[in-house]
Specification:
It is a single chain. The protein is α+β, with helices and mostly antiparallel strands. The protein is 41% helix and 26% strand. The strands form two sheets. The chain has a six-stranded antiparallel barrel with strand order 1-8-12-10-9-13. A hairpin with a 7-residue loop joins β9 and β10. The longest helix has 51 residues. The two termini are 60 Å apart.
């Protein structure tokens, strides 16, 4: 029994020694002076595709994971009620135009009546001055002339009312047509559909989300650095990102943001001592040309390590030289 126990102890020592040797071989090398590192996860700028007005979702034309281009139609809202309102507005517009034609014709009639009334008044006034027409008759002709002039002014006002009605009907028609345009939801920028928040048939309020779009040309990693490292860090400084899912690759990046105020580190930092430190939030952004080149490989949420160059004169170690996949997308081989 003792010899068995001895063999077990010897095996445990060898196993432990082998594990320690492997850890020494594969542990990350220390960074040279002038560099800083921190862990984080890739994030892409999110854009919510939402309704401008309340209504029912008629159809969704994309699925989660689909790649879309700017201006592509993503969803349509039910516009049956709007179509009825548009027909009503167009009918009101046509009616207003007919009223304008009638007002113009009425004005011509009233002007003719005014001309006749003025002629009769002038004739009566001339005869009255000579004593051939009684004064009462002259006054009647004058009253008829004034009434005809008032009718002309009323007809003029009727034309303006008809024009105003036409403008109002045209504005209403345009407003409803624009609302119908807003019922067709398009992609504001190219990207990938992350979530379908609503489904066809659902009734949404104004501003209700339908889809979430990830802009894969705006991808970054948020990391946290202590004061002594964030202080000398410059906007635009070179950086490298090594994804956990593909540690054989080193992706170039640039520091695009350094927070003005210190804050606690996020929950996913491993040790409690690190979480108790006040750190500065830093954004390390991937270049758009790299993201475009490897669009099918880019995924938000992937964890990894970010390395930033604090000193412009520091030279990147060999293990952090840029190394990108030769195959740009899963379909290119």
């Amino acid at each position: 029994m003792r010899w068995k126990l001895g063999l077990l102890l010897l095996g445990a020592v060898l196993l432990g020694g082998g594990g320690y040797f492997a850890w020494l071989q594969f542990k990350p090398a220390d960074l040279p002076a002038g560099f800083a590192q921190s862990n984080g996860r890739l994030e892409a700028e999110r854009v919510d595709i939402a309704t401008k007005f309340s209504g029912r979702v008629k159809e969704l034309l994309v699925e989660e994971g689909d790649t879309v281009t700017a201006g592509q139609v993503l969803a349509r809202m039910d516009t049956a009620e709007l179509e009825a309102q548009l027909q009503e507005a167009e009918a009101a517009h046509n009616e207003s135009e007919q009223q304008l034609d009638q007002a113009i014709a009425l004005l011509a009639q009233k002007k003719s009546e005014l001309a006749l009334a003025e002629q009769e008044y002038e004739r009566s006034r001339s005869l009255g001055e000579k004593g051939y027409t009684p004064l009462e008759k002259v006054e009647q002709r004058q009253s008829a002339k004034l009434t005809a002039a008032a009718a002309v002014r009323s007809a003029d006002a009727g034309i303006e009312r008809a024009k105003a009605a036409i403008a109002a009907a045209a504005a209403r028609t345009k407003r409803i047509a624009e609302t119908m345009k807003d019922s067709v939801l398009t992609a504001p920028r190219s990207g990938r559909i992350e979530y379908r928040v609503a489904q066809p048939g659902e009734v949404l309020p104004a501003g209700g989300r339908i889809l979430t779009l990830l802009d894969l040309t705006d991808v970054y990693m948020t990391i946290f650095l202590p004061t002594d490292e964030a202080g000398p860090l410059e906007i635009g400084a070179e950086a490298r990102i090594v994804p956990d899912a593909a540690p054989q690759y080193v992706v170039p990046a640039t520091v695009s943001f350094v927070a003005a105020d210190a804050q606690f580190t996020p929950k996913y930092v491993e040790t409690q001592s690190e979480r108790e430190k006040l750190m500065f939030r830093v954004k390390v952004r991937l270049p758009p040309e790299i993201l475009t080149r490897y669009a099918q490989r880019v995924k938000a949420g992937i964890t990894g390590m970010a390395y930033v160059r604090i000193s412009p004169d520091a030279e990147w170690p060999e293990r952090l030289r840029v190394k990108l996949p030769e195959v740009e997308s899963p379909g290119d081989a």
